[in-house]
Amino acid sequence: MSIVEYRGFAGVRLEAEVIGSENDPAVLLLHGAGQTRAVWAGVADALEQAGRRVISLDLRGHGGSEWPDDGRYDFEALVEDLRAVLSQMGTRPVVVASTLGGWIASAALERDAALLASGLVLVDSPVHVDPALAQRVGERLREAATLAPGQAQWDVRLFDTLDTSAMADRLDGVAAKIALPTLYVRGAISELVSKEDAAAFVGQLPDGELVEVENSALVVTDDRADALGGYLIDFLERRAPRGSPEFRAGSDARTFRDALGCFATGVTVVTAMCPDGSPIGLTANSFTSVSLDPPMLLVCIANTAGSAPYLRDAERFAVNVLQIGQQPTSNRFAGKGEDRFGVTPWEVGEYGTPVLTGSLSSFECARDAVHDGGDHFILVGRVLKAIFEPRRDPLLYFRGKYRKLHFA
After folding, report:
1. What was the pLDDT predicted at 408?
2. Cβ atoms of residues 59 and 101 within 8 Å
3. Which of 48, 78, 175, 321 is most open to solvent, judged by the fewest CB atoms within 10 Å of its CB?
4. Does the structural domain 258-403 have CATH classification 2.30.110.10?
């Protein structure tokens, strides 16, 4: 076991306990209000024995994490804490979060989920923010702190700052935006959320599952740790397996494609002029430099592409490297049946090729060679002219999704 520290929103120090091998898939545990990471002890041990690296995090104002002097515990600060922790991790964990932690995780993963995590498990996380219920829970926790002055492991100022109505607005419609495999675990006799509300919430998730723990009001308790651990391990083995997918010649081509998708690339649109003077083009991410002297590059074009015959025969072509604002252009040139150039700013370049204005860079090329390459052909070009815009950021593509640069 080791203790690690992260920097949360506004530099707040956040403390976590870590068990398990660095080489095992990661699980991040997030507790609820008035708790600490210790509440996960039994679950964490079960996950470690199942071959997972477990990071149990204390929220700000709880346990070993910093209790900020300014008493800032508003919901957005808690959400940004989690996003900051996830961005500092060297892997994308499955996030397991209960009650308030579930609200935080849901809001944090509403956007860029696939960049930050590989899955989400919500445990007894209320679907609707009930102000009356929140008040009752707050009163219980304040009373517990009052009965044990100086021994409380969380900051009582938390409930003076959290605005339940603001949280309700923040969480409205969030389920439909969580683009991750998600498991919702509910105590069968929970007062926090009804079975109907839980089912409705899961129904809005793009990829959601619902399970119930019998005879349980709250699932994250010592006597329910075995049941919760079983559901977690089943979900992890199915949706975030420890073993790496494997491709062998003759097996599923999709697995091969997924393996290739682990190589992050930029995105280009390859363009040329048809003999009748009309422009043609398509989106491609198989692009690389070949030589600096002479200046040469190559792109790979699918034989089945509608533009393929023209690109194969074109004496000159252009490769336009797209910037972050040109995602619609990438989609347009990857699709069919749309007037691609009619709604895309472009001009005829110095060497007669269609150049997309506003691109990160554009290379006008003369055809140097064409090579067959299975279901693609390799188009090699000698660069005649290159222009670029150094102040823009690239449009990236990784594991089947568009991405953007993250600056550390």
Report:
1. 53
2. yes
3. 48
4. yes
* Number of helices (H), then strands (E), in the chain: 12, 20
Give the right CATH number for 2-239 from 3.40.50.1820, 1.10.340.30, 3.20.20.140, 3.90.950.10.
Answer: 3.40.50.1820
- Helices 41-49 and 225-239 sit at what angle, rounded to 10 degrees? 40
Residue 371's pLDDT band, with cuts at 50, 70 and 90, is very high
Q: Average pLDDT, stretch 144-170?
A: 75
**What would the pLDDT profile of 262-321 be if each residue is shown by its tens digit?**
899 999 999 999 999 999 999 999 999 999 999 999 999 999 999 999 999 999 999 999
Cβ 191 vs Cβ 219: under 8 Å? no
Angstrom distance (rounded) from CA 145 to CA 154: 8
Give CA separation, 224 vs 5, 30, 218, 229, 312, in Å.
Answer: 29, 17, 8, 9, 64
CA-to-CA distance for 148 and 129, rounded, in angstroms? Answer: 28
**Largest distance between two CA atoms of the chain:** 86
Q: What are phi and psi of 398, to 5 degrees?
A: -155, 130
